[in-house]
Amino acid sequence: KLAYVWFTFFVLLMFANIAFRFEVPSLKLFAIARASSEGAMFAGVALRRVLQQGELLANPTFLVGFSLGGIVLVLVCALIWKSEKSVNGDWGASGISLEDKLHVPGPRERFMARCDELSARYSLTAREAEIMALIAQRKSRTEIEQKLFLSQNTVKTHVCHLYAKLDAHSKADVIALFEG
Length: 180
Fold this sequence. Notes:
Elements: H1 2-22, H2 26-53, H3 60-83, H4 85-90, H5 107-121, H6 126-136, H7 141-148, H8 152-166, H9 171-179
Helix pairs in contact: 1-2, 1-3, 5-6, 6-8
């Protein structure tokens, strides 16, 4: 059971990483985690029945080998997780300077700070700032419409107002302003 708990913890950490990186809604993530958990429990019950029918659970050599296999699986998962540097960055392990132990902003935090700075400088509305951030992420107009649940005309209107306030004429101008 301990191996199952640690493996579940590992899977949830990986799902959280995926949700953060690809901006997957957390409710969808919860559904995936729940389905994975239930699937693993179902597989465990089915495996136990098969082992009981084959009378393998009475064999001590098999039990030791099976337990060691589970431990090795958990260790492999831990090594994979530890070796992925970006996971450590996402969870804040690289967000602290080793020299002075002060917070070092990550890429997402710097991106949001730049959004706030430009929004304040150009007096953008909340919606215009939101659209500017999506343009800076190189989202298409269709993607912006879908992400914000807005009509095509509404997005066009907001983009026109945004371009006027930023004195921009294209997405490239907005991206250049954002990165500059």
